[in-house]
C-alpha cells in the first residue's frame, strides 16, 4: 500500500496519530465480477473507467439518453488521453452503457454517483440522489455490495439505503452490504489521479466495510476504514468545509495585501515554505464547482435542524457568496478611474468555467459577475473557447467572443485562464482586472 502521511497541523505528531488509521488489506480474492455505476457525470464516468479490469464487467447506468450519447461520441469533459481510453473501452466492450435500470439486478456491486446540489436557499437538494437510491433499492438482490459516493449530510446512507433495504426484507450486513465512500476526484488536475488518491470507507457493519473496500480498492492503492457511514459522510464534508474556509481566508488576506501594497501570491508562497502548520490557498474571483460552494451547506442545514450553528463556516460561506460582487464593484472603480460611465462601457470576461482546463460551469463565479455587470448597465461579453455558449441564472443566453481584440474593450476581467489558450490580446486592452492574481503577462494589470 502506498504511504500517505497525514495532512494535519498537530505540531509534528502526525506519525503518532497515523496509528489511528485502519488501513484495509484485502484477505481474499475479488468477489464482484460485475459493477454498475449509477450516474455518469463528473464522478461517475471517471469511476466507471477506473473500475475496468480483465476480470470485471463494468456498466455505466444513467437515466439521460443525451448523456449516454455524449459519452459514446466522446463529447465529455475528460482530458484527451482519458477520452481516447474511454473510446477504446467502449469499442472493446470493457465498459457498457445503459439507461435500463434492470441492469442493476445483475450487478455484484452498485456504486451511486449522482449530484447533490443545493437550491437557491442553500438547502440540500436530494431529489436526484433519492430517486437513484430508490431505483437501486428496488432492484437490489441478496449478495450485492451497494456503495454511495455522493457528498451528503451524515445519516443519508442509512436513511436512503439501509432502512429501505430493511423494509424490503434484506438484512444489511448479511443479505446485502452497504457503505459510504466519498468521491475524491479533482477534475482537470493530473497530479491527483484516482489510483494514487486514498479513499475512506464507512460500512453499516464491519463486514459491509470490508466488502465495500474490496470494490473501492480497484480504483486506488490505499483504502482506510472508519467506524460508520456517518463518519465517512462527515469526513467528506469536513474536507470541503476546510477548503471553503481556507479560500475565504485567502481572499481576505488578498484584500489585506491590497491595503498594504503587497502581493498576496508572494506572501502565500513565502508562508508555504513552512513545512508544518500551514496549508495555503490562492485568492480569486470566487469559488465554483460542484463541491465547495455547496457541500458546507449540507452540514449547516443539518445543524440548523437541531437549532445549532457553526459561525466560522457560516461567515466563510457568506464571504464566498459576496466575492463576485467585489469583482463587479472593482470593475466599476476602474471605469470611474478612466472617466467612463457604466452605460455604454464594454467589458469582456475572460474564462467563465469555474476552474482552468475544465468545461464545467456549475456554481462558477463568472455567472454572478456577468449578471452583476449587466445589472449596472455595462455592455458585457465573455471569451471562453471551452464554453462557446452559456445561460445566465435569469435565462439570458450568451455566446463566446470568437477572437477578441484588446482595444475593443474598456476593461478585460481575467476570471479563468485556461492552459493552451492565447490571451495575448489582453495586452492591448486599456484596463485589465486580474481576478486570478497570477496573470503577469500584462504589465498594467490591476487586481481586486
List keywords for this structure.
16 strands, oxidoreductase, alpha/beta, Rossmann fold, 12 helices, nine-stranded mixed beta sheet, 14% strand, 448 residues
Overall description:
The protein is α/β, with parallel strands linked by helices and 448 residues long. The chain folds into 3 domains: 19-227, NAD(P)-binding Rossmann-like Domain (Rossmann fold); 239-311, no CATH class; 320-447, NAD(P)-binding Rossmann-like Domain (Rossmann fold, 3-Layer(aba) Sandwich). 35% of the residues lie in helices and 14% in strands. The protein has 12 helices and 16 strands. The chain has helices at residues 14-17, 44-51, 65-73, 80-92, 127-139, 156-167, 206-216, 229-260, 264-271, 295-305, 311-337, 366-375, and strands spanning 22-23, 34-38, 57-61, 95-98, 109-112, 145-148, 177-180, 199-203, 223-226, 346-350, 379-383, 389-391, 397-399, 411-414, 432-434, 446-447. The strands form 3 sheets. A 9-stranded mixed beta sheet has the order 1-9-8-7-6-5-2-3-4, with helices on both faces. A 5-stranded parallel beta sheet has the order 11-10-14-15-16, covered by helices on one side. Helix 8 runs parallel beside helix 11 and helix 11 crosses helix 12 (366-375). The longest helix is centred in the middle third of the chain and has 32 residues, at 229-260. The two termini are 45 Å apart.
Topology:
Blueprint: H1 14-17, E1 22-23, E2 34-38, H2 44-51, E3 57-61, H3 65-73, H4 80-92, E4 95-98, E5 109-112, H5 127-139, E6 145-148, H6 156-167, E7 177-180, E8 199-203, H7 206-216, E9 223-226, H8 229-260, H9 264-271, H10 295-305, H11 311-337, E10 346-350, H12 366-375, E11 379-383, E12 389-391, E13 397-399, E14 411-414, E15 432-434, E16 446-447
Parallel strand pairs: 2-3, 2-5, 3-4, 5-6, 6-7, 8-9, 10-11, 10-14, 14-15, 15-16
Antiparallel strand pairs: 1-9, 7-8, 12-13
Helix pairs in contact: 5-6, 8-9, 8-10, 8-11, 11-12
Amino acid at each position: 500500500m502506498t504511504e500517505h502521511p497525514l495532512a494535519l497541523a498537530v505540531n509534528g505528531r502526525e506519525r503518532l496519530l497515523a496509528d489511528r488509521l485502519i488501513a484495509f488489506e484485502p484477505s481474499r480474492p475479488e468477489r464482484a465480477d460485475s459493477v454498475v455505476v449509477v450516474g455518469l457525470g463528473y464522478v461517475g464516468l471517471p469511476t466507471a473507467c477506473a473500475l475496468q479490469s480483465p476480470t470485471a464487467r463494468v456498466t455505466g447506468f444513467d437515466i439521460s439518453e443525451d448523456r449516454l450519447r455524449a459519452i459514446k461520441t466522446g463529447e465529455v469533459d475528460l482530458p484527451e488521453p482519458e477520452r481516447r481510453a474511454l473510446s477504446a473501452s467502449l469499442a472493446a466492450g470493457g465498459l457498457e452503457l445503459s439507461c435500463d435500470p434492470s441492469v442493476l439486478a445483475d450487478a455484484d456491486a452498485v456504486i451511486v454517483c449522482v449530484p447533490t446540489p443545493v437550491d437557491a436557499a442553500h438547502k440540500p437538494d436530494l431529489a436526484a440522489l433519492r430517486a437513484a437510491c430508490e431505483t437501486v433499492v428496488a432492484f437490489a438482490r441478496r449478495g450485492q455490495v451497494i456503495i454511495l459516493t455522493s457528498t451528503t449530510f451524515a445519516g443519508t446512507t442509512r436513511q436512503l439505503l439501509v432502512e429501505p433495504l430493511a423494509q424490503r426484507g434484506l438484512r444489511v450486513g448479511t443479505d446485502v452490504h452497504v457503505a459510504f465512500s466519498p468521491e475524491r476526484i479533482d477534475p482537470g488536475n493530473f497530479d491527483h489521479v484516482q489510483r494514487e488518491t486514498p479513499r475512506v470507507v464507512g460500512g453499516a457493519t464491519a463486514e459491509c466495510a470490508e466488502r465495500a473496500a474490496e470494490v473501492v480498492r480497484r480504483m486506488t492503492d490505499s483504502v482506510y476504514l472508519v467506524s460508520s457511514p456517518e463518519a465517512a459522510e462527515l469526513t467528506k464534508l469536513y474536507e470541503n468545509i476546510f477548503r471553503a474556509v481556507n479560500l475565504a481566508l485567502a481572499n481576505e488576506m488578498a484584500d489585506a495585501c491590497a491595503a498594504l501594497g503587497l502581493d498576496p501570491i508572494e506572501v502565500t508562497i513565502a508562508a508555504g515554505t513552512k513545512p508544518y502548520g500551514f496549508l495555503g490557498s490562492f485568492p480569486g474571483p470566487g469559488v465554483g464547482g460542484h463541491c465547495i460552494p455547496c457541500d458546507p451547506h449540507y452540514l449547516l442545514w443539518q445543524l440548523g435542524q437541531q437549532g445549532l450553528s457553526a459561525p466560522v463556516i457560516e461567515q466563510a460561506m457568506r464571504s464566498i457568496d459576496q466575492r463576485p460582487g467585489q469583482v463587479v464593484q472593482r470593475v466599476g472603480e476602474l471605469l470611474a478611474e478612466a472617466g467612463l460611465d457604466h452605460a455604454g462601457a464594454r467589458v469582456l470576461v475572460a474564462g467563465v468555467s469555474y476552474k482552468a482546463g475544465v468545461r464545467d460551469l456549475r456554481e462558477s463565479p463568472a455567472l454572478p459577475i456577468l449578471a452583476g455587470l449587466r445589472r449596472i448597465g455595462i455592455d458585457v461579453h465573455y471569451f471562453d473557447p471551452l464554453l462557446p455558449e452559456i445561460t445566465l441564472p435569469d435565462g439570458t443566453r450568451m455566446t463566446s467572443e470568437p477572437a477578441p481584440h484588446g482595444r475593443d474593450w474598456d476593461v478585460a476581467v481575467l476570471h479563468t485562464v485556461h492552459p493552451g489558450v492565447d490571451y495575448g490580446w489582453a495586452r492591448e486592452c486599456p484596463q485589465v482586472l486580474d481576478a486570478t492574481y497570477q496573470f503577469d503577462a500584462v504589465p498594467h494589470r490591476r487586481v481586486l
